[in-house]
């Protein structure tokens, strides 16, 4: 089982770009890009909170579980 962050899906769903999200959260564009591209292996609760705030979504929307 693999747990991923559904950044790409939420960006499409909310009709946002990464730069739009950057303006809503206290994370840099580079941090967001690394998370979106799966180049980040560990994400803090603080970062998860920022993403939830920026997307105005629930944890179930943010996480994607695959086999």
The overall strand count is: 2
3D shape: globular
Separate helix tally: 5
Question: Which class do the helix and strand fractions yield?
Answer: mainly alpha
Low-confidence blocks of residues: none
- Overall CATH architecture: Orthogonal Bundle
Q: Enumerate the strands of the largest sheet in spatial order, edge to edge or round the barrel.
A: 1-2
Largest sheet: 2 strands, antiparallel
Average pLDDT number: 96
Count of discrete structural domains: 1
The amount of helix comes to: 55-70%
CATH class: Mainly Alpha
CATH superfamily caption: lambda repressor-like DNA-binding domains
The Cα radius of gyration reads: 11 Å
Distance between termini? 4 Å
Report the portion of residues in β strands. Answer: 5-15%
Written overview of the protein:
With 67 residues, the protein is mainly α. The protein has a single domain, classed as lambda repressor-like DNA-binding domains (434 Repressor (Amino-terminal Domain)), CATH 1.10.260.40. The protein is built from 5 helices and 2 strands, in the order E-H-H-H-H-H-E. It has helices at residues 7-13, 18-24, 29-36, 45-55, 59-62; strands at 2-5, 63-66. The protein has a two-stranded antiparallel sheet with strand order 1-2. The longest helix has 11 residues, at 45-55. The chain is globular. The chain starts with a strand and ends with a strand.
